[in-house]
Design a protein that fits this description.
The complex is a heterodimer. By secondary structure, chain A is of the alpha/beta class. Chain A has 16 helices and eleven strands. Chain A is globular, with a radius of gyration of 24 Å. By secondary structure, chain B is mainly alpha-helical. In chain B, strands 1-2 form a two-stranded antiparallel sheet. The model of chain B has no long low-confidence stretch (mean pLDDT about 90). The interface between A and B is small, with 12 and 10 residues.
Chain lengths: ~475, ~160
C-alpha cells in the first residue's frame, strides 16, 4: 500500500490536481495505491482551489465503491485527505504583509531596513488573495508549514516506501516561493511541530523519494485594473531568476520536471478569490502526467538514482513534449508512451459520460442490464450523482482546454455518437458493425457484460464495474 | 399424439366449418373413412416449426437492444401469425381450387347429382388460415417464455 503525497502549491497546484483527479477518474494507470493531495495556498477562496476541492471530494466518495475486485479502473486509485482537509492552513492569518512581519512593532532602524527591502505596495499587500506574484514575500510568509496540523498529520501518516511530489509554478508568487521552502523543510532533519516535538516518521520523510514539477510560464494575464501587483510581463524574468536559484536544488530531488508553453493564452486578470478560476490547460494535464511518470514502477531506474546509503546520486531532469508544434493537439500529436497512457482511459470515460448524458434515461427501463438494478431512483442516489458530477467536471475540463491558444482537442465534445467522437487520426476505430449501430452496440455490450460482473457487489459498484467492462470491450486502442 | 394438433384446431372449428374440418381430418369420400393424410398435422407441424423459428429469430438472431420493447415483440408475433395465416389459408385454398377436397365435403347434391348447395367456400379456407394464425400466436407466446431467458437483449420482452 504505497502512497504518494502530492503537494500542490498555489493556483497551479490546484489546477494540476484537478487534471490529475480527472485522469484517475478515467482510470489512467497510477503506480501507487493512494494519492494524498495537500494544497498549499494562502488564498483558500480562489476558484481554482474550490473547484479542485469539490472534484476531489466527489472522487473520494465514488472511490469508496470503485474497488470491485474486478476489472474496473474508473476511480480505482484511492485519494485520501489528511484530517479530511485538502488545504494546508497556515496558522498565521494576517492580511497585510507589514502586519505579518510586525513592522509597526519594530524600532526605527529595522523599519528603515524593511522599507529598503520591500516596496510600499508590497508591504501594504493584502495577502488574503495570495502573494500576487511576489515570491519575495511568499518565501517569508510560507516559512511556517510545519506548524500546521495537516503537516503534522502528513508526518504521522508517512510510511517507508511512500513518495513525495511537489507541484508549483515558477512565475508567480506562492508556487515559486513555496517549492524550495517546502523541499528544504522536507529534507531538514528533526523538524519540530508547533509544540516543539520532533515530527513522527520524520526520518522516513527526509529519505523519501521526492519529485517535483516546476511549471514555467504558459499563460499571460491582462493588465490589472484593481491595483494588483500581478503583471505577466514579469513572468519570464521571474522564471529566469527562479531557475537560476533552482540550480541549487540539484541532487536534492530525485526527479525534477519542467514544462512550459510559449503559445500562451491571455486570461482576464483576477487578483484572487472566487474569480481566479483559470480554464484548464494542456500544460496542467501534462504536469499531472509527470506525477504519474514519477510513480511509474517501470520508470524507476530512469527517475531514481540513489547511492547505497540512499542519498540522491543524481537528479533526473525531464521535460514534456509533443510530436509537432501544432496549435490544436489531438491524440495523434502525442508521443506513443503518452498515447498508451491516456487514449484508452479518456476515451472510455468519454463514452461512459456520453452514455449517461444522452442514452441512459431513455434506455434503462428497457435494457436487461438495468432491470431490477439500476431503475427507479437509482440515478438519484448519492454515488451516481457524484459519478455524474465528476463526468461533468471532465467534460468542462475538455471544453476549457479547447478554449486555449494551444488547444487540446482529442474529442469532438458536441458528438452524440458512440463511436465517432475521437478527433484526429488515432487509429482508434471501434466502429459500429453488424446489426448494432451506434448506442445500440453499447447497450448490447452492457447486456452482455452484466452477466460477467460479480453478483455479490452492491448496485453502485456493479454499475461502475459494468460500464468499465463495456467501455474496455468497445474501446481498445493498441499503439 | 396424433390428435394433438387437431384437438387444438377444433377449438376454432366454428370459424371455418365442419366440412373443411372433416377434410383436414383426412376424410376420404370414396371410402367414407378418415384414410387421407391428416392435413391438421401437416399444417400444425409447419405452424409449430415456423413459430419456433420466428421466436428464435427474434430472441437470438435479431436480439436487438432497440427492438426489445413489448411492441416489437408484438410485431414479431403478428408477423408469425400472418405467415401462418397465409400459409394455412393458401394451402387449403389451393386444395379448394384444385378440387382436392372431396366432393361429398364440398357440396350437397340431389338424386340427379345436381349441386343443391355448396358447403365449403374460399372464405372457409381463409378462416382456417385465421385459426392457424391464432394458434401460432398462442405458441409464439409459449415459445417466448421459454426462449427469452437465454436472450441477451430481449430477455424481458414482452415483459
Amino acid at each position: 500500500m504505497s502512497k504518494l503525497y502530492v503537494f500542490g502549491i498555489g493556483g497551479t497546484g490546484s489546477r494540476v490536481l484537478r487534471s490529475l483527479t480527472i485522469l484517475l477518474a478515467a482510470g489512467v494507470d497510477c503506480g501507487v495505491d493512494t494519492i494524498v493531495p495537500i494544497i498549499i495556498d494562502r488564498d483558500m477562496s480562489n476558484g481554482d482551489f474550490s473547484r479542485a476541492k469539490l472534484l476531489v471530494e466527489d472522487y473520494i466518495e465514488v472511490n469508496r465503491i470503485a474497488d470491485t475486485k474486478g476489472k474496473n479502473r474508473f476511480f480505482k486509485t484511492k485519494i485520501k485527505l489528511l484530517n479530511n482537509e485538502l488545504c494546508l492552513q497556515l496558522r498565521d492569518n494576517t492580511q497585510k504583509f507589514n502586519e505579518f512581519i510586525g513592522r509597526n512593532t519594530m524600532n526605527a532602524e529595522n523599519q528603515a531596513l524593511v522599507d529598503m527591502l520591500f516596496s510600499r505596495e508590497t508591504l501594504d499587500l493584502d495577502m488574503t488573495a495570495g502573494f500576487q506574484g511576489n515570491p519575495n514575500i511568499g518565501s517569508v510568509v510560507l516559512n511556517q508549514f510545519h506548524d500546521s496540523d495537516i503537516f503534522k498529520a502528513f508526518a504521522a501518516d508517512f510510511r517507508d516506501g511512500d513518495k513525495i511530489f511537489i507541484i508549483s509554478s515558477i512565475f508567480g508568487g506562492t508556487g515559486a516561493s513555496g517549492f524550495p521552502l517546502l523541499r528544504k523543510i522536507l529534507q531538514t532533519p528533526n523538524v519540530k511541530d508547533a509544540s516543539g516535538n520532533v515530527m513522527d516518521n520524520w526520518g522516513l520523510v527526509n529519505k523519501a523519494r521526492t519529485g517535483a514539477i516546476s511549471v514555467l510560464p504558459y499563460f499571460n494575464v491582462s493588465i490589472a485594473t484593481d491595483g494588483s501587483l500581478v503583471n505577466s510581463d514579469t513572468f519570464v524574468d521571474k522564471a529566469r531568476a527562479a531557475l537560476s536559484y533552482y540550480k541549487t536544488e540539484d541532487k536534492k530531488l530525485d526527479t525534477l520536471y519542467y514544462i512550459a508553453d510559449r503559445n500562451t493564452t491571455t486570461y482576464r486578470h483576477n487578483k484572487g478569490g472566487d474569480a481566479q478560476k483559470n480554464d484548464a490547460h494542456f500544460v496542467e494535464l501534462a504536469a499531472a502526467l509527470a506525477i504519474l511518470d514519477f510513480v511509474n514502477p517501470d520508470r524507476e531506474t530512469q527517475n531514481i538514482h540513489r547511492d547505497k546509503e540512499g542519498n540522491i546520486d543524481k537528479t533526473t531532469y525531464k521535460e514534456f513534449g509533443i510530436n509537432a508544434n501544432v496549435p490544436k493537439i489531438d491524440f495523434s500529436n502525442l508521443a506513443d508512451e503518452t498515447k498508451r497512457l491516456i487514449v484508452n482511459p479518456l476515451s472510455r470515460f468519454f463514452l461512459f459520460r456520453s452514455y449517461m448524458q444522452y442514452v441512459f434515461a431513455k434506455q434503462y427501463k428497457h435494457q436487461p442490464y438495468a432491470r431490477k438494478r439500476f431503475t427507479g431512483d437509482f440515478r438519484q442516489t448519492g454515488i451516481i450523482r457524484k459519478i455524474e458530477s465528476v463526468q461533468t467536471s471532465f467534460y468542462d475540463w475538455l471544453l476549457e482546454m479547447e478554449k486555449q491558444e494551444r488547444k487540446f482537442s482529442p474529442f469532438n465534445p458536441a458528438s452524440k455518437d458512440a463511436f465517432d467522437f475521437v478527433t484526429g487520426s488515432t487509429g482508434l476505430g471501434t466502429k459500429s458493425s453488424g446489426i448494432f449501430k451506434n448506442w445500440a452496440k453499447v447497450d448490447n455490450e452492457l447486456n452482455r457484460q452484466i452477466s460477467k460482473t460479480d453478483k455479490s457487489l452492491n448496485d453502485e459498484s456493479r454499475f461502475l464495474e459494468l460500464f468499465y467492462r463495456t467501455a474496455e470491450s468497445l474501446i481498445n486502442f493498441k499503439n | 399424439m396424433r390428435d394433438f394438433f387437431p384437438t387444438i384446431y377444433l377449438w376454432f372449428e366454428n370459424l371455418y366449418g365442419r366440412n373443411l374440418s372433416e377434410y383436414l381430418w383426412g376424410f376420404d369420400c370414396a371410402t367414407q373413412d378418415f384414410s387421407n393424410p391428416l392435413v391438421y398435422n401437416q399444417a400444425g407441424l409447419f405452424m409449430l416449426f415456423s413459430t419456433l423459428i420466428m421466436a428464435l429469430l427474434y430472441y437470438y438472431a435479431i436480439n436487438h437492444p432497440r427492438l426489445n420493447r413489448w411492441r416489437h415483440w408484438l410485431v414479431a408475433l403478428l408477423t408469425t401469425s400472418v405467415i401462418n395465416l397465409i400459409f394455412a389459408g393458401g394451402w387449403v385454398y389451393s386444395d379448394f381450387i384444385n378440387d382436392v377436397i372431396g366432393d361429398c365435403l364440398m357440396y350437397t347434391r340431389d338424386g340427379n347429382n345436381n349441386i343443391v348447395s355448396q358447403l365449403i367456400y374460399p372464405s372457409n379456407c381463409w378462416m382456417f388460415g385465421i385459426a392457424n394464425a391464432i394458434v401460432s400466436a398462442g405458441f409464439f407466446v409459449i415459445f417466448s417464455f421459454i426462449c427469452k431467458w437465454g436472450s441477451r437483449n430481449c430477455k424481458y420482452s414482452p415483459f
